[in-house]
Amino acid sequence: MGGPKATGSSLELGDGFSAAKKKTSTFTIPASASNRNLAMNNLRLDSSLTAIRFPSGQGFNTLLWVLASATCLLAASTARGESPAPANSDPITVAYQESLKTWKQGLSALRVAIEVHDELKAKGSGETELKKSSQLVKQALEAAEQIVPQLRQTATSAYAAHPEQDRELSRLLLDIFIDDIKRDNYEDAYVIAKALIEGKCEDKQLLDGVGMAAFATNHFEEAAQYWKQAAQNGTLDAKHGQFLAIIPEYVGLWQQEQAIREKEAQQNDLPQVRLTTSKGEIVIELFENEAPETVGNFVSLVEKGYYDGLTFHRVLEHFMAQGGCPKGDGSGGPGYNIYCECHKPEYRRHFRGSLSMAKTQQRDSGGSQFFLTFLPTPQLNGVHTVFGRVIDGFPVLAKIQRRDPQKQPAPNPDKILKAEVVRKRDHSYVPTKTQ
Known about the structure:
Blueprint: E1 4-7, E2 10-13, H1 31-40, H2 62-79, H3 91-122, H4 127-161, H5 167-182, H6 186-198, H7 206-216, H8 220-232, H9 238-267, E3 272-277, E4 280-286, H10 292-303, E5 314-316, E6 320-323, E7 354-357, E8 370-373, E9 386-392, H11 394-399, E10 416-423
Antiparallel strand pairs: 1-2, 3-4, 3-10, 4-9, 5-6, 6-8, 7-8, 7-9
């Protein structure tokens, strides 16, 4: 078991499953998809579909690359004279085709912006001109990102209406699904997963990923079903096998958690905090009933503006996003420690979106650092104090920049631009400091 592990004085969370530490667990990309991505490096298509080489430092969303790859592949298959999918003229299919057309136009605009930027850079243009072209690339990226949700929705609907009739559509959805799992975007992944399963997609690697999406979104019995099937066909990821082993326990824990959340919803008075980050807003509800001292400390720091401008300094895929360090390296705190509340009989467990206190290996060593979990993390139950959960902003949580400060150079971290109390009970909130 790996609870927190100390590196110097920093507060660092271990991933918990020691057997899997040397190899990060990700949804395995099917060989066919891997070959397609490899082929993408050599594709040179028409101006609207050319494979794009994205310049560094532009904050490129990997989903855009995945969609660009899938779109280029679609054009390549057409160029090779492969038979097109059966034509459907129903409104659902037409909506998807229109979204795909808009996406191609956005991809073309993005390609042009990048080419202009590269040409200016090659010519040794001045800083002002390069900044302007870089801004145009950023705007083109943002415009392309805005198209993605509609493309995702219409593609999923079109597939559900005509499952496995359009090979390129099936491939596009699989690519989006794989990327969602990679980026811990499990709510969207689960929607696509259900469509692919109901449409009888026969990709053998799908089952492992569907199990992951179900597990992350608290559909534990479904996760067990899909992972058992993946085990039978030899595609179950080793770490997912460890998750499978704890599902019977988590089915019971989730039932208890749902009962608690139902009572909390009826009472409707728990404190809430909004984190405005460089990627968007995340709203968190705080578990004052089970962790009053931890909540008191957190609200007190928020009201003082302590978290404003601090970073998510350590963000590990398929694990968690850690922030709240004033030094930005995991070694800082408010100048005091607070007591752990994870040893009480009523302590809350870690599910997706849990807000929990970071600490060293020593008990009662937390201060201001916290983390938000991407997945249920059973190895941290009873070790770290869960004192809240995300109630809005899961898509934002998925976008937080992944970075491991132990691996250099690490990308620039995302920031908490502002933390503010949205709601609280009618009493003062203060930290109970250790002596």
